[in-house]
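User: Let's play a game. I give you a shape written as tokens, and you guess the letters that built it. Ready? Here's round one.
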């Protein structure tokens, strides 16, 4: 399983960088339609919605369409147990809390990769490799 960080979803809709957009669309489409190996958490969806409103000025109706498309990637909700787990990950690796929440969700889903440009590429977090496809 591959866990997608928020930036991957955002790039699928961001016209400001066509190269990153093409990469993100390919990754998400492949995960949804070919391998069925992509996943996200409710945190990622929340951050995606916030970014779409703020950065791209998308409407609620436009964001609803994206949410329907990403629905099959959603595999885990943020719970108190997941937040507690993230606190331990934050302490262990010295990373930002929201990044630790991504790592925690990916670990709970038994992912082997975290696809993100926010975490350190080639870093291993609890046995999971970080891949930055935008480098």
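Assistant: Ready! My guess for every position:
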């Amino acid at each position: 399983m591959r866990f997608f960080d928020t930036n991957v979803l955002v790039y699928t809709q961001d016209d400001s960088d066509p190269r990153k957009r093409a990469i993100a669309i390919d990754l998400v489409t492949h995960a949804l339609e070919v391998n069925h190996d992509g996943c996200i958490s409710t945190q990622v969806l929340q951050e995606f919605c916030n970014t779409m409103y703020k950065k791209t000025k998308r409407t609620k109706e436009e964001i609803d369409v994206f949410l329907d498309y990403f629905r099959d990637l959603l595999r885990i909700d943020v719970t108190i147990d997941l937040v507690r787990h993230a606190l331990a990950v934050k302490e262990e690796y010295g990373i930002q809390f929201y990044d630790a929440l991504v790592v925690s969700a990916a670990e709970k889903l038994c992912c082997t990769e975290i696809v993100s440009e926010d975490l350190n590429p080639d870093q291993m977090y609890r046995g999971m490799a970080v891949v930055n496809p935008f480098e």
